[in-house]
C-alpha cells in the first residue's frame, strides 16, 4: 500500500488525478491510499508519498521504533545511507512532538541490536537527500496509530518523494519583495534542490510587478524580464535587469539561458505549450513555470505535460506548491 499527503484542500483533486492514471484510491485519516504507484510517478496534488507504507496500530514508544526498524530491514541494504522523517499529525499541542522525540531516543539502541550497520549510515546532517539514499518516514496520526514507510530514493520516485517532512515548506516572507508571489519561486527552488545563482542568466516571462525577478536579482543573476507592464521602479533601475515590453509568448532568448521562470496569467494550455516548446528547443537549463487554472475541470490538461515533459527533462516535477492557490507549478532540469 502507498500513502499520499494531499496538497492543502486538494484531496478530491488527488483522487481524480490518480483515477486518470487508472488507480483507485481510498482515504484514511486525511491520507490518500492506493495499491499502485502512478507511472510516471508525478502527482501534482500530492505533497509527499509514503511508498510501501504499513499501517501502525496500538504502538508503544518501543513499538513505534520496532515498526520503523522492521520497515527499514525490508527496504534498505546494509550500509545504505538513510534519513528519517518522523512527525506527529495529530493535536495542536506539544504532546505529539514529545512522543516523536521519545521514539527517536528509543531508535538507536534497538537498531543497534537488529542491524548495527544501518545505525552508522543514518544521515542526520542536512535535509537534502542524495541519490542512493533512502527515506524512512513515520507519521503518528494518534499516539498509537499511523504509518511507517521506508524506500530507496530511486529515479522513478524522486519527483514524489520530498526532502521536506510531510512535503511541507512554510511560506517564505520578505516584506521588501513587490508581492507575495516571490514565495512560489523560493519554494520551487527548495523542492528542486537548485537555486538561482550569482552570474546565471534568467528569463522571467510575465514578470510584473517583479517578485520573481527580485529573487533572481538578489541572488546575483542577470534577468531579462518580459511583460506588458513595467516592474517596480527600483527593479527597473537595476543594472542586472533588462526589461522588454512585449508579448511573453513570442519571446525567445538569443542563446539558451540558465533559468526560465514564468508566471504569466494565461490559459493553462498556453503555458503548457510554451514550456514544452522551450524544452524541445533546449532554450533553458532549469525552469519554474506556473499553470493557472480557472476551473477544477481543467486539471486533466496536465496529463499531456506528465507524458511529454519527462523525456525532455533530467528532472521533472509538477506540484501544487504550499504557496500556490489555484495553480500548479512545473519545475525541473532540462535534459542535456
Ligand atoms: C501573476 S503576474 C506575475 C507576477 C510575477 N511573477 C511577480 O512575482 O511579481 C502575471 C503577469 O503576466 C503578465 N502577462 C499576461 N499575459 C502576458 C503576455 N501575453 N505577455 C506578457 N506578459 C503577460 C501580466 O501583465 C502580469 O503582470
Describe what you observe in this structure.
- The structure is a single chain.
- With 336 residues, this protein is of the alpha/beta class.
- It folds into 2 domains: 2-167, VC0802-like (2-Layer Sandwich), CATH 3.30.2130; 182-334, 3-Layer(aba) Sandwich (Rossmann fold), CATH 3.40.50.150.
- Helix content is 28%, strand content 26%.
- Helix 2 (61-75) crosses helix 3 and helix 5 (182-192) crosses helix 6 (211-218).
- The structure holds S-adenosylmethionine.
Entry summary:
The protein has 9 helices and 15 strands. The protein has helices spanning 11-20, 61-75, 95-114, 116-120, 182-192, 211-218, 233-236, 268-280, 302-308, and strands at residues 2-6, 26-28, 31-34, 46-50, 54-56, 82-88, 134-140, 146-152, 201-205, 222-227, 241-245, 257-262, 284-292, 313-319, 327-334.
Fold blueprint:
Elements lengths: L1 E5 L4 H10 L5 E3 L2 E4 L11 E5 L3 E3 L4 H15 L6 E7 L6 H20 L1 H5 L13 E7 L5 E7 L29 H11 L8 E5 L5 H8 L3 E6 L5 H4 L4 E5 L11 E6 L5 H13 L3 E9 L9 H7 L4 E7 L7 E8 L2
Parallel strand pairs: 6-7, 9-10, 9-12, 10-11, 12-13
Antiparallel strand pairs: 1-3, 1-4, 2-3, 5-8, 7-8, 13-15, 14-15
Helix pairs in contact: 2-3, 5-6
Tag the structure with descriptive keywords:
VC0802-like; alpha/beta; 336 residues; Rossmann fold; 2 domains; seven-stranded mixed sheet; 28% helix; 15 strands
Biggest pleated-sheet summary: 7 strands, mixed
Given as residue ranges, the uncertain stretches (5+ residues, pLDDT < 50) are none
- Please trace the helix and strand order, writing H or E for each element: EHEEEEHEHHEEHEHEHEEHEHEE
Number of contiguous helices? 9
The name of the CATH architecture of the largest domain is: 2-Layer Sandwich
Provide the residue-averaged pLDDT: 95
Structural class by SSE content: alpha/beta
What distance lies between the first and last C-alpha atoms, to the nearest angstrom? 35 Å
